[in-house]
Amino acid sequence: MTEGPMVAAFLAVIGGASLLAVTARRLHANDNLPSLEGWALADRSLGTVWTWLLLGGTIFTAYTFAAVPGLVYGNGAPAFFALPYTVIVCPLAFVLLPRMWSAARDHGYVTAADFVRGRYGSGPLALVVALTGILATMPYLALQLLGIRAVLTAGGLYPSAATGDLAMAAIFAGLAVATYRHGLRAPTVIAALKGVAVFCSVLAVSWLVLARLGGPGAVFDQAARRLSGPDAGHASLVLSPDQQPAFATLALGSALALLMYPHVLTAAFAASSPRVLRRVAVALPAWTAVLALFGLLGIAALASGVETPEGGAEAAVPILVDRLMPGPLAGLVFGAITVGALVPAAVMSIAAATSFVRNVYTEYFHPTATPKRQVRIAKAVSLTAKAGAVAFVFGLRDQDAINLQLLGGVWILQIFPAVAIGLFTRRLHHRALLAGWAAGMLFGTVMVVREGFSPVVPLGLPGISGHPVEIYAGLAALILNLAVSLAGTAVLDRIGTPRGADSTALPGRLTVRHRPETGASKA
């Protein structure tokens, strides 16, 4: 089903995304002089619907929609940790994001490292926060390309390495041009198409799959029988007691880590007020429902007997779609998943570029850089980030990107004490936070690499069945990080080591004067 209608439908969706990106200029609220805040944060002017589309489209990436059902297909019940994880994110976002937004708006912060610099008066601590964010974001950006490639390959739209690579490069080139010109406004308008396309596609595919396979009961029964077969290993649709600690800590640790990623904070900072962010946090579970349906499709792929290539479980749902749906509808679904990669990829490149310009280039190389020059450098770094992601995917094995992204989740969690805890208290000493960050980074990296890049590691305690208890490596590293930070703070305060100046001075409850929303921001 590689010819004609499917290709035409796929190209129609991609073309629609490109046309929408061109209209991003309409979201300009005014004709202010170029500034990093205007290019990277859309002048902090996005209303509730735009912010919901952008933040949801940034958090729920194309690779997520391919990887979660792929994990369900290959591993069964443990893969569903993504659902409680994205549910836990919502109350965290409700509490943390509005407070962070208020601090950022009051003091002109554009990145989390800006906040840390002002809160603790420590340049080195701000630098490690910025570099950790960039380091964790780059493999995440590369994974968006892997998601596109998995979809194109499974749908027969990747006929050869040369042709497929050229197609992916062309898709990313169009995105790069739109982001270069319009900044965050480009992925914002594409997010509208992503929301409509992904929601409609998954509902249509789920309805068709359930109708073809005899309903939910038949799907789960057939999937369970296949997982219990001789070639299925130890996978199951029900968690065993030994899997529960890993499941729970993965969900909690991943939720804490997600809101520390620069691209998530960039999307949040673009909102027009804290009230907008609270509304968005309440409405985010709608995206979780879509993710649950994608997980269901992974079970349906098992039930229908889909066979994936070795190590390519993320292709299970695209293969299922290609098998069950008519050509035009399959093309629309593949186009929707591809567009799903463009929004987070654009925001990630903007966030990485902004962190570099604000917290590395301006701080250490060109302190007197004008706003116009900062925007020019950020645009160039954004292009470089996308080109680097393309080169990374083409030059290395897919597993290398996946391994680095797993490490990225562990790494980004280590800035949680400085950023999230710093929103409520300045009790932790900035030098102790640096020591805790270093300990968490080293400990987490060693554990993950030692276990063959597994995100869960043995704790050394026997479980119910006698096997060692396994927990998420990032959460274990965070616990060590906090222990070192607390102990270091006690020692440094006892010997009288001075603290940096706090220029943020957060009150018990932040309030801010809101600018009136413009017509362009009220989506």
Describe, in plain words, how this protein is organized in 3D.
The protein is mainly alpha-helical and 523 residues long. Helices cover 70% and strands 2% of the residues. Strands 1-2 form a two-stranded antiparallel sheet. Strand 1 (456-462) and strand 2 (468-472) form a beta hairpin. The chain is globular. The two termini are 38 Å apart. The relative contact order is 0.19.
Strand segment count: 2
* Overall pLDDT metric: 84
Low-pLDDT regions: 509-523
Query: Looking across the biggest beta sheet, what order are the strands in?
Result: 1-2
What structural category characterises the helix and strand content? mainly alpha
Proportion of residues in extended strands: under 5%
Number of helices: 21
| Distance between the amino and carboxyl termini | 38 Å
Query: Roughly what percent helix?
Result: over 70%
Reading the helices and strands in chain order gives HHHHHHHHHHHHHHHHHHHHEEH
Summarize the structure in short:
Helix content is 70%, strand content 2%.
Q: Which structural traits does this protein have?
A:
mainly alpha; two-stranded antiparallel sheet; 523 residues; disordered C terminus; 70% helix; 2 strands
